[in-house]
Design goal:
The protein is an alpha+beta fold. The protein is built from 4 helices and 7 strands, in the order H-E-H-H-E-E-E-E-E-E-H.
Length: 164
């Protein structure tokens, strides 16, 4: 061998034993980090999708809900309307009443106790689904009408058809 040509690496030198192993260790760590990262991103995506799915319990005014009844099927949603005067009847299971939205009236069968503020001519949200033309509910949400109407002008329809 000449002095100008590089000498072959010694089998006993430090670079011969550690360089390939270091590259293998680094790429092994990279692979593990990549897999862990993918698992974390997948778990985070799942949690976001699950959270948004439950958070997106949309509500529909009674007139829109009736118009979309076929597409809603038996899916649970929030039905919004004003409790019609004279329609509230206590039953052994809870309370039956009618909500109005525009010219549309929907009969609601609620199982359970209505909230203390529940009464005729106030805006409510009934949580449940359609069973034929009746809305079957297991929860009633009552908003303080003045606060609710101030925050959502034009959303609530009074029994006479005027928007509040």
């Amino acid at each position: 061998m000449s002095a100008d040509s590089p000498s072959p690496p010694s089998a006993e030198g430090p670079s011969a034993n550690t360089a390939p192993r270091a590259v293998a260790v680094r790429s092994g760590h990279r692979l593990r980090y990549g897999v862990v990262g993918l698992v974390l991103v997948g778990a985070l995506g799942f949690l976001v999708a699950k959270g948004l799915g439950t958070a997106l319990n949309f509500y529909l005014p009674a007139d829109q809900a009736v118009a979309q009844r076929a597409s809603l099927g038996t899916r649970t949603f929030n039905l919004e309307g004003v409790v019609e005067r004279g329609s509230v009847h206590t039953t052994p299971d809870g309370v039956d009443f009618v909500v109005a939205s525009g010219a549309t009236r929907v009969r609601v069968q609620n199982s359970g106790s209505p909230p203390d503020l529940f009464q005729p001519e106030i805006p409510v949200i009934a949580v449940g689904h359609f069973d034929g033309s009746t809305f079957v509910s297991d929860q009633i949400l009552v908003k303080h009408s003045s606060d609710y109407i101030a925050r959502h002008p034009g959303r609530v329809t009074a029994p006479n058809g005027t928007r509040r």
